Amino acid sequence: MTQEETFTVLATRLPGMSDQDLFLEIVDACKKYGIDARTLLQHRPIKDVRIGDSLAVIPRIDGPDHSAVPYFAKLLLCLSVASEKQEHALGDFEERLNKLWIPQFGPRMGRLVCVWWAARSMAGILRFGIIAALVDRIVSNLHSR
Amino acid sequence: LEGHNLGELERAVLVAIVQLNGKGYAVSIADDAGRRLKKSVSLGAVYGTADRLEKKGFISSRLGEPTPERGGKPKRLYRIEAPGVRALSEARDRDSRAWAGVSPLGEPA
């Protein structure tokens, strides 16, 4: 594995920033970390570069040793966590998935465990929803009499 | 804050935040609180509890650095504030008062 393949780039695309400007920003970051940006971008074309909150070059995280949170778990988290805290929640689950659940249960089971815990995060909302539905039903029954 | 009753999980989360000394985020808080309560604490439970405590002014949060194992996503780091310290001390004092004069359980007084 070459050095370029072991890194990924996070960059900020500011409003109005073109692909070229973004590329230059990435090149600056790569210089800072001693990576050949042209080789890197051959492996990861500009359209595939992740757009994050900060400009940084960090060890590759999406290789075979790293798994992202399953989409269904993401959906459950987005439903149960306030929008401004969803990114941190996804990060927390990703950390748990890769450091605990996959090593403990294997990739497939680990992802299922991740979905299970995301579903458990919704337990409070579901409980509230069920109680609200019951109250609504009782009240409507009382009104109909 | 006199009379403010902290729940079991709220107390465990506050103690974990104190223990982690400004470096506590949801994963480490859930681990610490789980060890103290001797049961698994879900991240969702920590988010809900931390939200409530933050709204009460007991804790504050700030963004940490993004790290590779989190897919480049930043941590939300929590620290305890003065009202939180007071509420926690009050809860501990209340517990001590409740148990004052009681001999160890299982032994005659």
Summarize the structure.
The complex is a heterodimer of chains A (145) and B (109). By secondary structure, chain A is mainly alpha-helical.
Structural features, described:
The complex is a heterodimer of chains A (145) and B (109). With 145 residues, chain A is mostly helical. Helices cover 61% and strands 8% of the residues of chain A. The radius of gyration of chain A is 22 Å and the shape is elongated. The N terminus of chain A is likely disordered. With 109 residues, chain B is of the alpha+beta class. Chain B has four helices and two strands. Chain B has a two-stranded antiparallel ribbon with strand order 1-2. In chain B, strand 1 and strand 2 form a beta hairpin. The longest helix of chain B has 18 residues. The mean pLDDT of chain B is 86. Classes of the chains: A mainly alpha (145), B alpha+beta (109). At the A-B interface, strand 3, helix 4 and helix 5 of A face helix 3 and strand 2 of B.
Please give the share of residues in helix of chain B: 40-55%
Structural class call of chain B reads alpha+beta
Q: Which strand order do you get reading across the main beta sheet of chain B? A: 1-2
* Bulk shape of chain A: elongated
Based on CA atoms alone, the radius of gyration of chain A comes out at 22 Å
Mean pLDDT of chain B comes to 86
Tally of DSSP β-strands of chain B: 2
Percentage of β-strand residues of chain B: 5-15%
pLDDT averaged over residues of chain A: 70
C-alpha end-to-end distance of chain B: 34 Å
- Provide the low-confidence segments of chain A as ranges: 1-6, 42-48, 51-64
Following the backbone from N to C, one meets helices and strands of chain B in this order, namely: HHHEEH
Please supply descriptive tags for the structure shown above.
heterodimer, A: 145 residues, mainly alpha, three-stranded mixed beta sheet, 6 helices, elongated, disordered N terminus, B: 109 residues, alpha+beta, two-stranded antiparallel sheet, 4 helices
